[in-house]
Amino acid sequence: MASPSSRVRVAVVGTGGIVTGNHLTALRAHAERTELVAAVDVDSGRLRAFREAADAAGMAGVRGYDSLGAMLAEDRPDLVLIGTPPSLHREQTVAALEAGAWVWCEKPLCLSLAEFDAISAAEEASGAYAAAVAQHRYGSGAVHARELIAGGELGAPLVAHCQTTWYRDSAYYEVPWRGRWASEGGGPTMGHGIHQYDLLLHLLGDWSEIRAMAGRLVHDVESEDVSAAVVRFAGGAVATVVNSVLSPDEVSRIRVDCAEATVELTHLYGHRNEDWVYTPRPGLDDDGRLAAWRTPASDLPSSHAAQLGVLLDAYARGVRPPGSGPDARRTIEFAAALYKSAFTGRPVLAGEIVPGDPFHEAMHGNHPEWSPAR
């Protein structure tokens, strides 16, 4: 690990839009703490464009590679940011961990619980950590809401709703890896709604049971294009979770009804404090609590930059970062359980998907109507 006084040496893997946009912006926001030293991409033109963008952003001298292995051997980065298609995440994350680097990987971190367990084994062997990008947790509004809920300020959580209803046309699925189990791991449950239900889990904690349905209603793809679930949380709250790419009126929404107030977030791809609304229960006297609920100390938008700051703090302390380990596994297990319930038609309990269960190996669980061999 780099010394506390030095900047963290960073490499990026994959130089498409998500890295050139979000990751490069995040690194620029933390320029005093990071040094971008290398970039990897098999597409030489895309790599060249990224290096030019990095140079324009004040990060000159980024070395380019077409091989992750060569980059890891020659540059020995402290932190690797991965923004490649999902099917590459597990292999690239493990390689970086084995080289002693920490990893910050775009969602989903991996395509199955089996892949997650391989990442966990690499973490344990190397002493490095791998975190998933989950930027919606890190805006000041989300931090504030979690503190209020966890501290009991809003009363016990009772009912919740989590909605990712977006729209994707047929052209979206012309990208070869989209909509396929082997390359994307699933449909909107894995590729779109994961941000919102990850935030829901972050707010409410462990889940205990899922009952779900899924459908392939419009798109000619292997995976689903809509899913819906009813979820019971360990604390007793009951929630609905809907993931869709069929919805012309696009919205991302989380609502949690607690005993003393409802907290609601409505946005699309990112949020600020103003996107969080608190409604007290009828008859509740406003003794100053409502103003405190609505007014976090700062207004930090949810963003890659916000999460990277937290990750760098953990790196400096040498501790496991949020969004890694059991915290990240809970989100992947939630997706696997949703698919298992939808495809088998029965409820799934937390902890029941273990090695030997087909849904541990793949999100489709080799279910006849949904596996690639259908």
UniProtKB/TrEMBL annotation:
Report the Pfam families cross-referenced here: GFO_IDH_MocA, GFO_IDH_MocA_C3
Gene3D superfamilies the UniProt entry points to:
Dihydrodipicolinate Reductase, domain 2 (3.30.360.10), NAD(P)-binding Rossmann-like Domain (3.40.50.720)
Task: Report domain GFO/IDH/MocA-like oxidoreductase positions.
Answer: 144-263
Record-linked InterPro entries? Gfo/Idh/MocA-like_OxRdtase_N, Gfo/Idh/MocA_Oxidoreductase, GFO_IDH_MocA-like_dom, NAD(P)-bd_dom_sf
Q: Which residues form the Gfo/Idh/MocA-like oxidoreductase N-terminal domain?
A: 8-128
A GO molecular function held by the record: nucleotide binding
Give coiled-coil spans as residue ranges.
none
Q: What superkingdom does the record give?
A: Bacteria
State what protein this is by name: Putative dehydrogenase
Classification of source organism:
Bacteria, Bacillati, Actinomycetota, Actinomycetes, Kitasatosporales
